[in-house]
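User: I'm putting together a teaching handout on how multi-component assemblies are represented. Below are the sequence lines for each component of a complex, exactly as they appear in our records. Could you produce the 3D structure of the whole assembly as structure tokens, so the students can see both representations side by side? Please keep the chain order the same as the input.
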Amino acid sequence: MTLEAEGFEVETYNDGQSALEAFNRRMPDMAVLDIKMPRMDGMDLLQRMRQKTSIPVIFLTSKDDEIDEVLGLRMGADDYVKKPFSQRLLVERIRALLRRQEAINTGEAAATEETRMMERGALRMDPLRHSVTWKGLEVSLTVTEFLLLQALAQRPGFVKSRDQLMDVAYDDQVYVDDRTIDSHIKRLRKKMRSVDDTFSAIETLYGIGYRYNEE
Amino acid sequence: MTLEAEGFEVETYNDGQSALEAFNRRMPDMAVLDIKMPRMDGMDLLQRMRQKTSIPVIFLTSKDDEIDEVLGLRMGADDYVKKPFSQRLLVERIRALLRRQEAINTGEAAATEETRMMERGALRMDPLRHSVTWKGLEVSLTVTEFLLLQALAQRPGFVKSRDQLMDVAYDDQVYVDDRTIDSHIKRLRKKMRSVDDTFSAIETLYGIGYRYNEE
DNA sequence: AATCACCTTGGCAGAACTGCGGCAAAGGGT
DNA sequence: ACCCTTTGCCGCAGTTCTGCCAAGGTGATT
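Assistant: Of course. Below is the structure of the complete assembly, with chains in the same order as your input.
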């Protein structure tokens, strides 16, 4: 299959049953289903899969089951491709869906209000993974650094005073010197510069506090 | 028996004959059979039971009758547990089987292997068989280790705090020091290293918890 | 330009955290 | 009663993180 030549990792199954097993086992990033399959057709399979995740699904339909297209989409398929189809077409549609999914994942989706993923310009923060990337490069932060950056990036362009930042990083009973925030900002900037020596997104407001600037 | 403490309703019989009678009378949700029993051994009993229903059956085997394991599975047993076994292991296997049965019942069609294998990179876990392999090599884990690894591997790349891991491995009432998790992770890593001394899939995040990384 | 206020940065000691060996106590099978 | 496995925890040593200091810079103000 040329899908592999395109850099995708692919697994193929000839019936719905084994496809479902494989799905549960591997949790793929997306699925391409034929409507007609032995041992469980595409519709049933889609329904089962939707109970677990919401990955992108493309249906393959032949002329005979055109009627099913609407039904399929309504059931949660993301796209369908009519047989016969060209390799290129399928690859394109797959790419498009994965791009869209990526956008959703990085943008809003994920968990709750506070723990969700954040994207601000070249910065990405994912609390659930405790991972931070700047221009695509992983930066390894400590808990305190992570919290401070999160607080700042939360509202790009808005100043946060040291007191406000302390509230984010410490429990109420804990008190530390103002200048300690400066220390953390220092280390934060240093780590960011270690992956991008032009980093300047954290600005100092003389006498006020710090500010994260997007762009 | 502590199975009752786990919320199961249990009846015990010391020979195959009375077990069969009880079986016909009560129609249980599942059965745990010893291979060796007076008045009718596990094999015969299984055969009789299978004529009526297809409830999950677990065999208990001792070293002497290892040969029977294959035979037993072929005859329709769903799982077997080697003696000596720990209370917790048995409970875990029973739960897994009941879960699967439940899935089959509600998901109507034969969703047989639904809750079966989990593959994450070089790791494979089979909750039903309580078996784990790393790069194809069998690793023998205790119940606690198994649960922790399962929880971590469930979502590769996501951090799990010690608290979250404790939730997975312990009942709500049980409380243990969170450094105990460290001990289990230690043993887990050690066992994994014993089959692959480069093992490093379980990462520590300072001040946060642990994370399973694929590849 | 002089002065004062406020920041940045390197350095450092103590605090916090983790890995590991080891041990004693359950827990439960025989 | 005896034994083996599993488990929770302790303590030490090594590592990482953090709060603060002090020296030197930068910005504001007069």
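A couple of points students might notice: The beta strands of chain A are 31-34, 57-61, 79-82, 118-120, 123-126, 131-134, 137-139, 159-161, 202-205, 209-212. The two ends of chain A are 41 Å apart (CA to CA).
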